[in-house]
Design brief:
The structure is a homotetramer of 322-residue chains. With 322 residues, chain A is an alpha/beta fold. Chain A is built from nine helices and 14 strands. In chain A, the strands form two sheets. The first copy, chain A, has a seven-stranded parallel β-sheet, with helices on one face. A seven-stranded mixed β-sheet of chain A has the order 9-10-8-11-14-13-12. In chain A, helix 5 (132-146) packs parallel to helix 7. Chains in contact: A-B, A-C, A-D, B-C, B-D, C-D. Chain A binds chain C through residues 14, 17-18, 21-22, 25, 46, 48-54, 162-163, 179-180, 221-222, 251-252, 254, 256, 258, 260-261, 263-265, 267-268, 270, 272, 291, 316-322, and chain C through 14, 17-18, 21-22, 25, 46, 48-54, 162-163, 179-180, 221-222, 251-252, 254, 256, 258, 260-261, 263-265, 267-268, 270, 272, 291, 316-322. Chains A, B, C, D: Pathway: Amino-acid biosynthesis; L-arginine biosynthesis; N(2)-acetyl-L-ornithine from L-glutamate: step 3/4. Chains A, B, C, D: It catalyses: N-acetyl-L-glutamate 5-semialdehyde + phosphate + NADP(+) = N-acetyl-L-glutamyl 5-phosphate + NADPH + H(+). Chains A, B, C, D: Keywords: Amino-acid biosynthesis, Arginine biosynthesis, Cytoplasm, NADP, Oxidoreductase. Chains A, B, C, D: This is N-acetyl-gamma-glutamyl-phosphate reductase.
């Protein structure tokens, strides 16, 4: 099989590192170069030392656009548009952007949530990869939105691991602060609500309810937990059935009949869901890995779809489990 | 000053241990005996080894009722009533029960939440110490209930440390499971809702709203975080003012103008609150230590009140901070 | 390709679970049955819920010996011998035992440390898989033993994650105890020293030095860190060269020129080494995942070798990294 | 009682914060001002928010030297000498410096390790407070040094919490890096070895053995664990007796007959020791809180001694325990 010539732009950060960890063992992918302005000339293993033995690549700060079949963009939010203007890739190159810049589906980008947009992604050349909280919340509620069950405010609490804040040092990611601690940030105003509402409006044009989302900083490095609920008059089994049907062709999103916990999904590309009916509410739990299903794993899933590969190619990951 | 002759029943568990840590240095208290059926004959330091150098006491399984001014009961839920029938203490003995058994204020017990019931506690001989989540949630909402501001369902998420589950081994407190993990339990049905609604009904007989409470198991040992909200038409400053007035005589409950995090309260008897107004909701964060303000610290606070001591005697604790 | 018909005995524990996580995606392996006395009749995903979507298998308590090409034994230490007497597998079946029972190479078992015994393993039908600390310590010192450099007592400290203590509940794996804590156990007397000395004696019959090993319980779930040192008169570069040569055909054991940390190896089958020369000592750091290179990953590596497969088949695992 | 007029210089960091947490409740101490160049004009509670309700002080960048009975210096290492030259305090002011600058006992400073130097500290006006690892290691070995038992190289491994690295952000204190991780730094060359050897030479002029010390970065915020050993021909009980005698007047340093773990000492001013005899070695474990007995707690202990107060005044701290 002829391999897909692939590049990663902005490969020194956490999501770039996860892309590397996935792509060095992806049998359909040939990594042509990995780009980083800050780390140019260094070996990849100097920055991602766990990759020892897996790659001899070095970072470059040069951007080659010709002869590239696929490029992943892991630039800071707001820099992608300028980058693509400066470095126009050929029309046949599949561009998968992990930033927020094109999640509004401007400039011909498709929103890369395969559970909702699989057909569009399969034919796309430009894919905007969803945010981490956005992925967890959309997968929690999308089947209910599709059924038009959410007719009042939905209440959501979510807890994210520290890697969601990236590699840059900050007070709230200082170990002595973060360990054993909890706090809330961006109360009801998290920026991912925008892309969530866009998707829900596409699924169901009648949807217009408020989403009150409390995002917590968690005392762990990886993973996102979502609890979402809204008033629901139906039976639990009806809801479980609807969710299973909605995700019947989704190879990573599963409805668990048993109660779940976060680590079931950590270090995998899965989204594991569990539903409950209590006090007149339909309650959905979701567990994902924020760097995988919430970022780089989903990006590779979109890459697979865009190139007509098996959707789970290179993504049968062993969970951390414990 | 003549010291208060004090006993602890069920002193081998986590709340019993915290009582010991507080009372060995409480200058008005003389520990007469510490009781444990399971550990009788052992030195206290064999079970609570951090107390090395602080006490030479041994556990006993004998219950002396005469000559005891104050007794703390740290028995498993459901065992206190039988214990007191078998071991009747004199009428003058102050009984402080940390179990759920008398939180319904039956049998002459007063519900020991000083911020609400200080006057009753000052004259009480029988005090039922509140639950940990109950303390955090009540302190989050009591001023709003008093103002009759909660006119629709209030939404609450809370995260508890593992010590809330006690010393007994269980699958959800196994380190390999719990570390880096999150999960929900007793969704909307936590047993503390009963005592919370009782208090709110006492504060405001008109109150009858639903409380939808999502309790999380957190990946830390100590502390409870509460986020509570409900629709509110007033201004934030009005609410802050009302909360400060409500707690003006409370030496441990503080309204922070700045954003807060959990560890500010850990290893202290404080409840630290912060208020926000966003999307038409009044949102309250609360941070407590589940074993102190949520259990043994509040028990000592009640002890101080019952004996007319300074309310914060022996409770000026250094926070863990980091 | 005809698949290797494989069974797992004792598949409900941590090492059994890791075997399952590896083998469900191992393209040369067909899982015939997974055995557990305690969980018989349950779905595998009821016990290892992170495997949702990966397997529909159920645990059985029946042991089929015919038609099985390979069997992994994950029984408690001391039970394997009796099990094999009761359930004799045909002579052609490859038996890979993860317990300590045959690590003395009795009953025709080969000690399954590929970096030392690869040739023997390639022809073996009975393989005794090394212990976790044993793997880390042997890989730290084997090249130096081979060179006869260790001529005085070697000093070793090692820190293990909690999963080394297994799934059974215990006081030292209670979350409220273990989190933020450190302690030492089996000081200088850890049972793995026996198999370590056996290997070192095979590598170098002149070796007879004492190994003083301080094993720590670490505040994390996965991983083993080893620091080992002994007086060394040579140059660092000489040692680095010797280690690289010793491991030149080892696909998982790498000598890093840069300093290392534990998480580089966690959730992989790698052993990452780093050498220093300081104060006249050669110092070796090693990082492995106790459940993978220290148990189930190495077992699959042995499986690959025994069946003439690529040594790293099914073992190109994505590290947790963060 | 007339209170001791006290100032803290450099009070915005971790050790400064711990001094504040201790001194706001120290009944013999009156805090005159707290100094910080970086935080001047801010309320103390803006930087140490857990102190809400405990102090209304604000940071100042002015240094008042007159009328100050005691000053604690928490400046970065290397800045104290210049500071004192610029701001000469009167001869009667007790100066307690937490930096490394005067631990060599230059300029009239006494090394403030009360277990060794109590008499000198009681008469001192200038006290150099020991380092955190230095405290743990010295208390582990001092009685053996005094007995002249250490006649060969002593081997030491130690694990420190992240707060030892202070408040400044760094890659090795980034939560996503540090959590679940282990690594070694400053192998055999930690700067505290200098003050340790100085003390040991004072205790026993014949002492001149090498100390091989492996310092680990631990996956927790507070605490230092030390394991130290050397060949010893005597009986364990002889050693235990010697240690108990050496520490008989030390109110915070205890020899536990039972095995110990780190958290027994965390958030207290205690040093808890345990001794073992194994493989011909005397092995000593020590547990301290790096910020308390290893820094600010010991500074207050020195303050108490210098002013003739009870040595444990304000230092009967509740351990975190869990």
């Amino acid at each position: 099989m002829k391999k897909i010539k692939t590049a990663i732009i902005g490969a020194a950060g956490y999501t770039g590192g996860e892309l590397l960890r996935l792509l060095v063992h992806h049998t359909a992918c040939e990594l042509m170069y990995v780009h980083s302005n800050s780390q140019k000339g260094k070996k990849v293993t100097a920055v991602h030392p766990d990759l020892i033995g897996d790659t001899e690549l070095e970072f470059t700060d040069e951007v080659q656009t010709e002869g590239i079949d696929a490029v992943f963009l892991g630039l800071p939010h707001g820099q992608t548009k300028g980058f693509l203007e400066k470095h126009p890739f050929p029309a046949h190159t599949v561009i998968i952007d992990l930033s927020t810049d094109f999640r509004d589906e401007s400039h011909g980008f498709v929103y890369g949530l395969p559970e909702v947009n699989k057909t569009k992604i399969q034919g796309a050349k430009k894919i905007a990869n969803p945010g981490c909280f956005a992925t967890g919340i959309q997968l929690s509620l999308a089947p209910a939105i599709a059924k038009n069950w959410v007719k009042e405010t939905a209440h959501i609490s979510g807890i994210t691991g520290s890697t969601g804040a990236g590699k840059a040092l900050s007070e709230t990611t200082h170990f002595s602060y973060r360990t054993n601690n909890m706090s809330v940030y961006k109360l009801f105003t998290h920026q991912h609500l925008k892309e969530i509402k866009q998707t829900f409006g596409q699924i169901n044009p009648d949807f217009g309810q408020e989403l009150l989302f409390v995002p917590y900083r968690g005392n762990f490095s990886r993973g996102i937990w979502i609890t979402a609920y809204f008033p629901f008059e139906g039976e639990l089994q009806e809801a479980v059935q609807a969710y299973k049907e909605f995700y019947q062709n989704a190879p990573f999103t599963w409805v668990s009949e048993a109660d779940i916990d976060l680590k079931q999904a950590v270090n995998t590309n899965k989204c594991i869901l569990h539903l409950k009916k209590e006090k007149g509410q339909l309650v959905i739990y979701a567990a994902i890995d924020n760097l995988l299903k919430g970022a780089s794993g989903q990006a590779v899933q979109n890459f697979n779809l865009a190139f007509g590969l098996e959707e789970n190619m290179g993504l049968n990951l062993k969970s951390i489990a414990f």
